[in-house]
Amino acid sequence: MTPIAVTIAGSDSGGGAGIQADLKTFSALGVYGASVITAVTAQNTRTVIAVHDVPPEMIGAQIDAIFSDLQVGAVKIGMLSRAATIAAVAAGLDRWEARQVVLDPVLVASSGAHLLADDGIDVLRRVLIPRARVLTPNLPEAAALLGLPPAESEEKMREQAQHLLALGAEAVVIKGGHGRGEASVDLVVTGDAVVRLSLPRLAVQSGHGTGCTFSAAIAAGLAKGMGVEAAARAAKDYVHAALAAADALGVGSGRGPLHHFRAWW
Q1: Of 103, 135, 136, 179, whose CB count within 10 A is highest?
Q2: Which class is 4-249 in CATH?
């Protein structure tokens, strides 16, 4: 049977992040993608111009439509712009007993625009993190969720991941892309293990949608039956290759998107 994953996130009109990046990632990795749109954004490679929230009842209706018909193997959650949206998503996950949940705590767009209201951060911590099999924060997101400065060492990354585990996530993949050094290091942290994933840091101009793509790729791996470590490792390899080819894609005049289909064109 064809593996299926669903993305619950915002729409990016520029096609580089959000729902559009997730569906491209699912397709590139051999997974059928469905979607629940939580917000419609007017954005491009330079900036986010406007955000229009989808009503909570419509979010719930999309979730019910998908889960009542499709055999969903994994769920990726991205942009949730307000507390009411988070509550609607949590209720939908509970109704359908969704377990393979990858939560990407999207707080700020790569352009710097804030995508989650301040009152939503506490709700995200209390309501959705305990429902996540995998939480995928970057260094600023992990710090914001914990009220701490961003980690500047692998030791601090490990400590912050352990604090996030205590909030209820089964596993935390804390991403070091915002760090320094020749290597980009992510840590896959569970209750009994820490796995280090390291690849050379790439000097590229593009990279819009990197976080969305990474979490979607993990969800694709889970939908295909991989464990968390294997899915995270495969996701890092995929993102690294798509990022390496991003500048050659030449889309937009700002921070361009990854080349999700670099293996084909």
Answers
A1: 136
A2: alpha beta
